[in-house]
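Why do we bother with holo predictions? Because pocket geometry can differ from the apo form. Keep that in mind while you read this record for manganese (II) ion.
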Amino acid sequence: MKKIAILGSTGSIGTQTLDVAANEPERYQITGLAAGSNVDVLVEQAKQFQPQIVSLATKEAAEQASLALPASIKVVYGEEGLLEVAAATDADVVVTGIVGSRGLPATLAAIDAGKTIALANKETLVTAGHIVMERAARKGVAILPVDSEHSAIFQCLNGEDKSAIHRITLTASGGSFRDKTRAELEGVTVSQALNHPNWSMGAKVTIDSATMANKGLEVIEAHWLFNMSYDQVDVLIHPESIVHSFVEFNDYSVIAQMGLPDMRVPIQYALTYPERRPSPAGRMNLASIGRLNFREMDLERYPCLKYAYESGRAGASVPTVFNAANEVAVARFLQGEISFLGIEKVIETVLDKHSAVPVNDLAAIAEADAWARRTAANV
Ligand SMILES: NC(=O)C1=CN([C@@H]2O[C@H](COP(=O)(O)OP(=O)(O)OC[C@H]3O[C@@H](n4cnc5c(N)ncnc54)[C@H](OP(=O)(O)O)[C@@H]3O)[C@@H](O)[C@H]2O)C=CC1
Ligand SMILES: CC(=O)[C@@H](O)[C@H](O)COP(=O)(O)O
Ligand SMILES: [Mn+2]
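The structure, written out:
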């Protein structure tokens, strides 16, 4: 029986994790669930999975949930509540399905408590990859990728010697505007941007996918997860999202991982690793897909990816600033405050204003993050 705590249980990753668990209920026990404001969904989840503890973002939301749940389920709230779900249950694995760098303290708390991390929250590694990876290594804790591309690379690398890897390639669908020119991006709407062609995901990652900032975050995530230099991490446009990523070895043999775009496969693999189990996902039929397409990435078309590579290579506080500027810019776009092309403008302006500083501890990360958020809010 695998015991699981889920941070962000009401979101896209969280609900699909529970789908995986419900598919083989005898194999999983849900020990904790943390959500933001969606009380109704959290209460339903708690009634079905009977965790030891649930957490919501605010006291009011927690009080509402308490009224609907049996006394056997502890209800907590706020940052402390989130940390309690991350670290204080007897979970073996913590699934990090929260959005943004706000997931960092809970991820670190789970590592400190010796929990295996099933990592979906890529911003955690972008903002503080050196701290997270060092802490996990010191604690002997595994960080298993949930992000589809990184799960693919993880599966392709299975047991291979790192010195045998030439490079890894992350595939990118191109997002909701993959067939539009830059000129056509003027005036696109939020609802158009939220219409991803292949994946059904939360709003932030869907917008990141359209700007290609998502692939930028993923390049930095891959750098940390697989200890690769930025020259070894490539990106290729693949509109069908069937080849989830691939590894090229020194002998020029290439191993790719494929399947229908369904996050329940990488989520489940992080939960069952090193075992494979039948999953609730559909089976791929290449004959009916017929054709797979690939095209070169264009950094002029997708400047957010260029900024991500530059930020990753610069290191120090720059990836933290890139991530925070992007988070604020996406939130401003979703609120109708700035245009779609305004997202890249905000990131570019914040990066231009920033002078890199060392970020050796969490206080320095928090300072760089806060500076970037303040600056991005006023561009
Ligand atoms: N969705 C996907 O397919 C993929 C996602 N990822 C990554 O996974 C992460 C999650 O993405 P996704 O599931 O799409 O996001 P969603 O927006 O769908 O879900 C976010 C979750 O976080 C919860 N949350 C918000 N605020 C708080 C808080 N203060 N405390 C605790 N929980 C909170 C939300 O709760 P509530 O709704 O109750 O407010 C919700 O459960 C992101 O980093 C994303 O980049 C990576 C690969 C694929
Ligand atoms: C499903 C997943 O892993 C997302 O992060 C995905 O990467 C989005 O697709 P694109 O970034 O390829 O559009
Ligand atoms: Mn991904």
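Residues 147-149, 172-173, 175, 199, 205, 209, 214-215, 241, 263 surround 1-deoxy-D-xylulose-5-phosphate (ligand 2) (CB under 6 Å).
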